[in-house]
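User: Can you write out an input/output pair for a complex, sequences first and structure second?

Assistant: Here is one pair. Inputs:
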Amino acid sequence: MKVSRTWIGYGLTAPAFVWLGITVFLPLAVMFYFSFMSRMPMGTAEVTFSLEQYASFFQRDFYRFLTWRSIMLGAQVTFFCVLIGYPAALVLARTVKGRWREAILLLVILPFWSNALIRIFAWTMVLRTDGVIDQVLHLLIPGAPSIGVLYSYPAVVIGLVHSFVPYMILTCYISLQAIDDSLIEAGQSLGGSNLTVFRRIILPLSLPGLLVGVVLIFIPVVGSFMEPRILGGRDGIMLGTVIEDQFTEVFNWPLGAALSFTLLGIVAIILALAYPFLKNRVKVA
Amino acid sequence: MTRGSGKFRARLARLAVGLSALITAAALPSLAEAEELHVLNWKGWGTDDPSALAEFEEQTGAKVVHDYITSYPEVFTKLHTNPGYYDVVVLNVAFVGQAVREGLLEPVDTEALKNYSQLFAELRESPQLVIDGQVYGVPWIWGVTSVVYDTNVFKEAPTSLEILWDPKYAGRVCWRDDPEDSVRFAALAIGQNPDQPQDLNAVAEKLRALKPQIKAFWKSEDEWRKLVAAKECDLSIFWTSSADKAIGQKVPVSYLVAKEGAIAFRDSLVVPAGTSKKPLANAFIDYMTSIQFYRHWAQAGGAPVPANGAAVAELPEASETRTVLTTPENMARINFKGALSDEQRQSYLNLWQETKAYFAE
């Protein structure tokens, strides 16, 4: 009986794994294979296999500079997402009740209903000189100087924070609303101030959600290319845009793939280094 | 690659071709009423003009099906991965030689083209199109990338490319985010051959000097229009035919051909190897080089310069293509882009990315 149950388990989950295998790992495997080629296997030129594409990452200084830039962008965007998303989730999970909570949750998810590219273009209308923000400002203070930040680094951060903050709100909300009210009441009845209750009970118990949010945001932001290119102007170059150019400008898939896997490796190392620290924090909870 | 796997791949390819032929044969009866012509081009680049297409389809009874590219290297991917599917392709002249070497094109039967003799001889006889005595591409249109300026800022047209480096316009220049054009313009500005700059370091140095000047980069016409609408660009590097369209819509811009020069691209119509619809492909090419076709594009706006000299007259007389671009003095300054090798392309991209990284430092 036990054996057949195990097999039923396998049988039921197999389609999902097969699907994941095909849609996630197969394209990645193909790209990994490409990353070792000397050139695209088209036309008449001979293709050889080597590590030369990976070597170019270390031969050109600007790749390392841009990797650092992309990681800093990821860190900053994640920081602002925590700053905005966590308090929002806290209020939503602990204070807002009933229908209002549903309505606000719906509003949080609403941006996902529109295409990411459209949202970014909408930001260009808001942030540009004489855009929506400027017009409101001039309505309030006629003759005020422009505060349009489009085509600058802050514009990239604003656009990305807007795109990713819902992930933070949702993951934090899920772990915050699961906290048993009686734990908080117990803390309060033992004389804990609100701050102590937050620091000793709420934050540790919601940490898993917060960390999931951090990982979900940090990784894609490090590889982002569309938002920096459209919003960043002269400051819009990132490792992501450089990778995009290899595919679209020069048809050099091998180099684009090698740079992607190098970035993937670096992000994996960062997460691996952070893991012991994170694991201990979660264990305390 | 070992020889064995090459053989296996060839067998696989033959199998795939056979299968697709079978499927095509099975599908043929239902399509017999209207012969389909498969065209590969940029979106919105003339061949898909709705009124022109309607005219061509009415004349021939055929149905034109478009597929689109976003870069010329993509043409090579599509022709390699889908042989026999495309019948007519719009290809930049600089890429025709490479396509012929890779066995992707068939010679064009110019005897079958009524308008061929009307095309500018210099374009028609270009060694980039006539290879080993055979014509592989029919010149179609050409266009120029040059300096566009805001007419509210400049009462008189600037005359030199140096205006782009003038500190007076710091943070007011909108640059095309394109490695090749960037290298070519910097080369022109320092008096080097834009096709083969002798000193790439000097070119890189000149590009780096743009750092305080640049406001933003654009990649598509739409992005440039948004920048100009937001009054971000006193000066830009831009396509003159698209600037013509903006001028027609009362955008306050104009353009110049600087004394150092401007760069021009030429597009040709080519026939991929393996097409089964040569007569229809020829009819399409003939129509595309006709005055009737160009009339539609001129009316729609944003048309580049036709290779058919007689068709230029279809442009409005006030059009800057006629008043600025095609004056004999400016024509002599225009540098028609030559072919680049893959290695050159990659080195230009590396140089340009390094420059942009320096901009962001």
